[in-house]
Amino acid sequence: MSRYRGPKLRITRRLGSLPGLTQKQSKKKDRPGQHGKSSFEGGKKRTEYGVRLEEKQKLKYNYGLTESQLYRYIKEARRRQGVTGLILLQLLEMRLDSICFTLGFGPTITNTRQLVTHGHITVNGKVVNIPSFQCRIGDIIGIKPKPTSKTIVENNLKNIRFVDRPTHVKFDDKKLEGTIMNYCDRNEILLELDELLVIEYYSRR
């Protein structure tokens, strides 16, 4: 199954805010589809399966994953010791495209994925063009020493308004590079999600 490339606002109308997918918001309030409004106002409730499915879809669309990619992350999270849901989120947040988004190199993960694939991003001084590259604590994420790369990221940084960057990264404004200090804190993840429901969705597979 390929990565979704359709209308983004249609997805956020159905699933809610997905900061990794788009920062735009639809003026339409109803869920998409012919029965988007009536199915919920008429008393029809979502099934437990439907609720778990939507939480899974949030994760998939926010981080720009295919179904097979997400399932691989689920299996890896189960394999590691600790709270499976938190480990899953930490694995996704340590992807190179996610780290670049956290640092503000692009307005969405969709955008930073393109920066990575086009060779604008470095890890510890070496260009890495794989968005799913799993970063580690201590890695330094920077910009390729090329005017074009620097200009793109500088413009993105100017247009992105930060309250505070998450505490698991440290950003050097002069060098335009970030250092990964730790794994992410659950409370600092922007995506509104019940990851336990995602784990439950895959529990029968």
UniProtKB/TrEMBL annotation:
GO terms for cellular component: chloroplast; small ribosomal subunit. Residues 3-93 form the Small ribosomal subunit protein uS4 N-terminal domain. Residues 1-45 are annotated as: Disordered. It holds the Pfam family Ribosomal_S4. InterPro entries: Ribosomal_uS4 (IPR022801), Ribosomal_uS4_bac-type (IPR005709), Ribosomal_uS4_N (IPR001912), S4_RNA-bd (IPR002942), S4_RNA-bd_sf (IPR036986). Its main location: plastid. Residues 94-158 form the RNA-binding S4 domain. SUPFAM superfamilies: Alpha-L RNA-binding motif. Residues 1-13 have a biased composition (Basic residues). Gene3D superfamilies: Ribosomal Protein S4 Delta 41, Chain A, domain 1 (1.10.1050.10), RNA-binding S4 domain (3.10.290.10). One of its GO terms (biological process) is translation. GO terms for molecular function: rRNA binding; structural constituent of ribosome. Keywords: Chloroplast, Plastid, Ribonucleoprotein, Ribosomal protein, RNA-binding, rRNA-binding. Part of the 30S ribosomal subunit. Contacts protein S5. The interaction surface between S4 and S5 is involved in control of translational fidelity. PANTHER family: 30S 40S RIBOSOMAL PROTEIN (PTHR11831), SMALL RIBOSOMAL SUBUNIT PROTEIN US4M (PTHR11831:SF4). Belongs to the universal ribosomal protein uS4 family. NCBIfam families: PRK05327.1, rpsD_bact. This is Small ribosomal subunit protein uS4c. It comes from Cerataulina bicornis. The lineage of its organism: Eukaryota, Sar, Stramenopiles, Ochrophyta, Bacillariophyta. The gene is rps4.
